Amino acid sequence: MKKALLNSVLFFTVLVVSAQRGENYASSIGVSAGYVEDGLGFMATYNYHLNRKTYAQLNVFVAIAEDKGTFEIPYNIFTVQPGYFIKVWEQPSFKRYTLNIGGGGVIGYESINNGNNTLYTGAIIDAESQLIYGVFVGLEGEIILGNNFTILIKANEYYHANSDIGKFYPYAGIGLRYFLF
Fold first, then answer.
1. Which residues form the signal peptide (predicted)?
2. Do the domain assignments include residue 128?
3. Would you say residue 14 lies in a domain?
4. Fewer CB within 10 Å, N or C, the chain?
């Protein structure tokens, strides 16, 4: 797991450093909120635009959810996600709409029942709160509102290699992105 974290940080650092050799493009920050499996998710994003078609991205993601199986078991996921995105489509005439696709690594922590292995009924939970790691693929749509703001529509699918909650975990949200010049 330490090797996966080191590789993710190294990948993001190399992208940012290599981008500084060329033209200076904008950076952007964004926030979004939306649906995750069994609850709500919130994401804060920093993008470093390498050129007009690609950007390195660093996300902080929080999920607040409750597994509604036999028992209702609350859980939270907190992750950091370095990634890389490519613009795959842009509205030809006015360039007001774009579609980006990308992916990257995921590392974080999942807290099951606030770290307590016993439910209010006395039942014992098999799963453990733990560090998690994996990868993600993402799709981002942008609707340009002006020079500095866009509406952000985001969908990510996560693969957590060692999660007790589930290997695949979706997120779909909407938010705003602000371009820093």
1. 1-19
2. yes
3. no
4. C
- Average pLDDT along the chain: 86
At CA 114, angle to CA 110 and CA 119, rounded to 5?
Answer: 120
Q: What is the pLDDT of residues 15-61, one digit of tens each?
A: 444 444 445 578 999 999 999 999 999 999 999 999 989 999 999 99
CATH (domain of 73): 2.40.160.20
Q: Which amino acid belongs to residue 145?
A: L
Q: Where are the beta strands (DSSP E) in 37-71?
A: 39-49, 54-68
Q: Is 61 exposed, middle or buried (0-12, 13-18, 19+ CB in 10 A)?
A: buried
Domain assignment present for 123: yes
Q: Which of 58, 103, 108, 105 is nearest to 79 (CA)?
A: 108
Residue 97 lies inside a defined structural domain of this protein: yes
